[in-house]
């Protein structure tokens, strides 16, 4: 019995030493692990490989994306210059052109039709009318929307309106526009009191030839152009918008000679490789988490059995390494992004934005993750440690400051909104105040409020001076005090 | 006697314990009160309800306000584009257009008349000439103001002026403008040496139809347009202003079909409910203040009777809770604002600005008041405590800095005022310096002073360098030192 | 002997007590002086009176100044619009218009002549041709300056130039310009290879009538207009400048009726009163300084006789109150400024700038002087004390930082000067760097350097990043550290 | 033996004392050296002389450089205004003009030819056609580059392209342009589908006459003008670029009379003198380093022999004075810069940029080197000491922050690049973020992202708020904490 007990004790001792070793090993840095058990740091290698590959992938995607974006933008620019009369080259506010007289509306309208009918002789790009599948040109559609019935007599403050909207459309063939204009002359008798908007829609087809020079296949594009004459406000100002929805697809018939086509397979292979590396990294990290949880369980069982104590919360959180979580999330994002990227390259998807958000966020996380490895070298983790120490205080502090901030946001929006474009929407006010407190554009903000009524002028001064003083002098200074305090705390450790 | 004394003592003890209990209870947080006496925190509930309701009310009012403001602004824009010759689309400085030749003044003048006479065929909005009650069109009035008598001969530095102003007016009917122009040709013989200004005033009527779509009743607007040709300066530059005074009223005859009108009663009920909640909150807070004063009296009487001591000032101020005051003020503001809002909705008032200032300020205060409840959780009130601790020092410090600031303001205004638009008025100088010390627009401020006379150039450099160095490096750093100091004081507590 | 000794001792004791009293009294604040010896604080009263009066005087002068400045500026604007062809309304860089072709030069030249000849019918202001004393119109003078002899053949890289300049002038009478143009046609045969510049000078007379409304006498102005066609660079770009020298004088013949003239005597009396107050203040302060020096001498004699010790330097500097010096300087400036102001009002001087610098600086100093009186209340002088404590350190520190700053200034000027307008001159570089380190306009500074040659691009990046990082992160942080340190030193006291 | 030992000991003692003296002397400041051994501080004198001379040289070079640069820039401006149709005076983005219609391309093309053919009568500067060595005018060359074969039918998504590029050129004699235009009419039949670009190249010769007035010899310039009609993108927008390569050379035949030429020899002598001073300084510093190394060797030998100890690393680094290295590098840069400058003055080099970078960098270093001498006065080296103390921490800290920064850079580029011009290229993103964290342009950055798709809008807000908060509130505050900490460390010493 004694022997058994002895052996049990020995076993216990062995178990304990085992656990202690495992624990010590768990908290080692890759270097120390290598020295201790000749454990080659695969995980570290995978991470470094991942950083390089994800960054490369992002840059390749970005460069490709830029070409597509610039093609679309320049086409947008060209079409605006072709179809909008008196277009200045830059959009005002959110619309492109504003017209104020009935004559100007008619002129702008006919200008679109004229330019469209002679589009083939105008444009300098490989872009032309769209054809349907029978080779017939798709016509331009012109729709006007107006109140069903309405007689408005502002002179004697009377109106009689049927608020239901009616829509009337005519179509125009580019080849016979002039005849049609005279035929549909009744259509162009616009009753501005009732008119809500006029929409001109047509479709153009273009080919992005520039990719030939980077030895890629040119894509075909369908441009769905919508020109809107917006009279919804009935304020005497008709805003003209030009919107383009550009959809790319593979061309139907193509033949290229005189140049070798780049092999797009390599790119696919690269993407697949990225996915594999990310998967590996995710699996390795999951394993580490699982191991950590098991180790924690062993440790807590040991503590419970031998000392009848529980693992305190602080120690528990030591086991659950937040970095692993970060890596796994970034891996998942990268995998999804890579798949989207492959789809885009295969022309079966066009959602560049979604893909770039996935790839971008994962790259951001991967680079932030590097700090973890820097943290293995002592003294390198001042930033992280200070942040960790300051975080709860900063958060609590932000809560309070946030209340005042919110109050100022609402108050600024309601009072100054009508007088200052920076205070027009709630999110804009929040941004404006955020910018102000970081020392941005102060004088112009003040100045734009100058020649309004005296009450609002006084209020705006009180508002701005108090906000800026309070936040720049009090709140920002307190931030510095908080961080300095946290830094001194971690310096002592 | 002993028993009596005893009972008195017992009574005293009971009273004392009672007081102690009451005092303890008074300084508890709502949570603790609930735990101690199962007192359900009505007041807290009312406050939370108030925050939600006031914010909702503010947002509803703001969205409605935006529609009105944008309608007015776009009409202003449209009228400027219709009536001002060569209008560029943006106002220069504070006027809209400036003309420099006699011919240009005549052209601009006739342009207004021509455009007015054909206004019906020009405008794209539901806006037209105003009629008086008999259905007759209100005419345009054209007034010129000039020195009664005047012969100015700059060539030989002589003038002879009767500084009294005379005003001559003619009226124009839109339908017969051209005849009138020739009839009143003597009126248009402007003697520019004597001319002070020309004022063209007319009235237009418009209907804000856009509200039909948000299922509200369209309002009728009267636009009182004033176009001023300002030659007061006699400097060879005639500034043209266009001002609009837009007044809304309910339309006289209206009929809408094809859509259901939104029930505006709900909104009124909501406003009334807000007023009720605010009243409740104000009453509850007043009651709390009254209770606190009574408790203070009891406490001071107790201290006086038993220990013959007075309550010290610090303790007294503990009783008088500043938060209650804040809440009551915000409640009063909200009530006044809500009443104004109801009046506006009933079209009996149009002072949007005053209403929005009341509502905005009350919302700001209500959100700031949230900090008080956060303060009940420990550690959350760092901001408030530090501010309280730093406040007297900061104020004293601001006094001193303010003197230097004032000195710089006066000095900058007088010396740099003629050379730099940022230094034109005293309040602008104050704003400019305030912006500069928060790191704004420095280079342009320097740069705009470049090609003036050398003395002013040197002065401006000395002025700006010294001001910025003094305030950014000394004063702002001292602010940080003050706040850090205050933070360390409260951290120790 | 003993008695004598005794009496001497007594005398000594009395003297000592006397001295002690005087010293104590000397360092008292006005309040304490009043309490101690019922000494009514005349000096304080005079200072307060001075602040009010100087500030009032400054505001009055400023308002008057603004009218004059705006009159001159608007005239400048009007003349530019009248005489410069294709003037856009804003000056480019430092010239008004630039022309690039021979035709355009001729057109602009003839445009000036044409406009001048019909000036009377053009201008809307009370401004006309100048006459000499016999009532004859002063003619316009047209001068061209060119190299005496020159044949330049860029094609075969040959030139032969006589670098001496010749000037040929013709005069034009406004009434007969057209004949003269044809008569002097040889003058207008410009040989652009030799032409250095063309100068058109003429004189106009105007009357500032706007002051009639503020019930002051209108002044007469002589405008000496110079239009320069500058071809000095011979770079294919002819810059056109328009300069005006406006001189005001009292009009010769004038008659005003219909309004009472403001009595300008009151203003003179006010100015005299300001001078008297400033003189009083200066005399009082000088007396205080004299008294202080005497007291110091007594004290040092006493110390020397009784303890054979010298007054240490720190104590000496306590006696010499820097504030008095400040007050005396500000008084002198105010007196000079007031005298200048009176001269200006009497139309015998026109140097507004010099006067405003004197008045402005004295006002700045007077307001700064207020801090001294605030300093008598305890705790109010944190700002001054901290500044005093930090000053030597800050100065030494600025010396070092200044060296690096100077190095960067020179380096930036030489390398980036040709590529970026902010780095064009040494003083501009200094201003630009100063602005950058206070957080201004960083991105645009970066951005404007984008499409230059790669070497300069790389250099500019290294330059800007290193400068900003060094100064914002290191130098500014050290400033905060210095001030915080100084604050903690004075807080302990 | 004892005596020998004794003498050895004596020798040792003497040696030791010798060494101690030398060491003490080595670490003295120039002043102390002068006092100790009457060693006149030649080195200091040379340095002061160097500072003065290098700064003078830099300023001279800079002023000269400015003239050349302004001549080139104004010529560039003039040529753009002459040859580009509808040129607005400022370049858009990176091109000068953009055209959108076939007609506009033809117009712009013919405009160039027309203007070129009448260039002699157009330009106001001493600039004309280039001639070859036989005196024949060099013709203008017009080349168009296009895809060898191509039929593009966007309507039915079909194309057939031979991606090889063909180039066709025609030359135009300025005297016979009009005939040639009709002769080469086939050349101007542009097939826009295939057209890649059109390049117009010609050569002009000019003489920089303005230097005559600063009494220097005028240089001849050859301007190689290239006008490019860029249709590479095939996006419907043809961008027009105008590039000038200006090469200066000495004119072949020249004759100047009427003015004395400045003697340029003095400048050469000055440059040589600068080189000599820099060489002396470099040699002296090298000698000092050699002496220091020898002293170190003696000291380490002594320590080894007598105490059998090694010199610790800290002490070693004390011997190797970094300042000497700085001086030597700056000397070398100055010498290279001066040689380049002399070459430029002798017209055998035109690389102003390289020269100015060398001179600029050396001047920067020389001024930074002044701090070393300031450091000899106590208390003056706070800046340097604090920087030294803070440097390792700051560097480590920057590493960590840099990772996050890099992550944000990549992420911002990929996601926001297509929507915001500030995020277009990786280096621009880095600059933009750097500017943002120093408080620049925040609101406009926010605002320009407003009307994009909702996903990107949300992302941009999260991105910007998180970046700014993280860096301004956490990272910058930590910087202050680090520097304050370092300052306190060195203050104790």
UniProtKB/TrEMBL annotation, chains A, B, C, D:
Looking up CDD domains in the UniProt record yields: ELD_TRPML2 (cd21071)
The answer to whether keyword Cell membrane applies is yes
| Gene3D superfamilies from the UniProt entry | 1.10.287.70
InterPro entries given in the database record = MCLN_ECD, Mucolipin, PKD1_2_channel
Q: Which GO terms describe its cellular component?
A: endosome membrane; plasma membrane
Annotated membrane-spanning segments are 266-293, 323-340, 352-374, 394-416, 462-483
Q: Where is the Mucolipin extracytosolic domain?
A: 68-252
Tell where it localizes.
Cell membrane; Endosome membrane
Cite a single Pfam family from the UniProt record. PKD_channel
How does this protein sit in the membrane? Multi-pass membrane protein
Q: Say where the protein is mainly found.
A: membrane
GO terms assigned for molecular function: NAADP-sensitive calcium-release channel activity
UniProt keyword annotation of Cell inner membrane present: no
Q: Which domain of life, per UniProt?
A: Eukaryota
Please state what the protein is called: Mucolipin TRP cation channel 2
Write down the species.
Dicentrarchus labrax
């Amino acid at each position: 019995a004694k022997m058994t007990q002895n052996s049990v004790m020995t076993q216990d001792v062995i178990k304990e030493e085992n656990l202690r070793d495992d624990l010590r090993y768990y908290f080692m840095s890759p270097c120390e692990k290598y020295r201790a058990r000749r454990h080659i740091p695969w995980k570290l290698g995978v991470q470094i490989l991942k950083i390089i590959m994800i960054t490369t992938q992002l840059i390749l995607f970005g460069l490709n994306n830029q070409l597509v974006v610039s093609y679309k933008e320049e086409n947008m620019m060209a079409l605006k210059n072709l179809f909008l009369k008196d277009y200045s080259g830059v959009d005002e506010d959110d619309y492109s052109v504003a017209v104020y007289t009935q004559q100007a509306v008619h002129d702008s309208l006919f200008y679109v039709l004229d330019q469209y009918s002679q589009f083939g002789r105008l444009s300098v790009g490989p872009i032309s009318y769209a054809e349907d599948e029978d080779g017939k040109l798709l016509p331009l559609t012109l729709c006007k929307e107006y109140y069903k019935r309405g007689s408005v007599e502002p002179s004697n403050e009377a109106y009689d309106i049927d608020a239901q909207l009616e829509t009337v459309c005519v179509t125009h063939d580019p080849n016979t526009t002039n005849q049609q204009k005279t035929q549909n002359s009744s259509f162009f008798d616009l009753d501005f009191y009732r008119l809500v908007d006029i929409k001109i829609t047509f479709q153009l087809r273009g080919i992005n030839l520039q990719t030939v020079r980077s030895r890629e296949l040119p894509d075909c594009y369908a441009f769905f152009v919508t020109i809107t004459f917006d009279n919804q406000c009935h304020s005497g100002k008709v805003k003209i918008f030009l919107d383009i929805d550009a959809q790319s697809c593979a061309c139907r018939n193509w033949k290229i000679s005189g140049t070798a086509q780049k092999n797009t397979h390599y790119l696919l292979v690269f993407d697949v490789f990225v996915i594999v590396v990310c998967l590996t990294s995710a699996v390795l990290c999951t394993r580490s988490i699982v191991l950590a949880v098991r180790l924690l369980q062993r440790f807590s069982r040991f503590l419970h059995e031998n000392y009848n104590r529980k693992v305190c919360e602080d120690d528990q959180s030591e086991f659950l390494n937040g970095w692993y979580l970060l890596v796994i999330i970034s891996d998942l994002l990268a995998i999804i992004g890579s798949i989207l990227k492959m789809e885009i390259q295969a022309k079966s998807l066009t959602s560049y934005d979604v893909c770039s958000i996935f790839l971008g966020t994962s790259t951001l996380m991967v680079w932030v993750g590097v700090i973890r490895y820097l943290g293995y070298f002592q003294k390198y983790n001042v930033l992280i440690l200070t942040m960790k120490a300051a975080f709860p205080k900063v958060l609590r502090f932000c809560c309070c400051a946030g209340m005042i901030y919110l109050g100022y946001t609402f108050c600024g929006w309601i009072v100054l909104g009508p007088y200052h474009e920076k205070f027009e929407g709630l999110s804009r006010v929040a941004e404006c105040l955020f910018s102000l407190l970081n020392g941005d554009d102060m004088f112009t903000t003040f100045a734009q409020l100058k020649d309004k009524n005296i009450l609002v002028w006084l209020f705006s001064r009180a508002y701005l001076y108090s906000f800026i003083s309070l936040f720049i002098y009090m709140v920002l200074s307190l931030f510095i005090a908080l961080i300095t305090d946290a830094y001194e705390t971690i310096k002592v450790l």
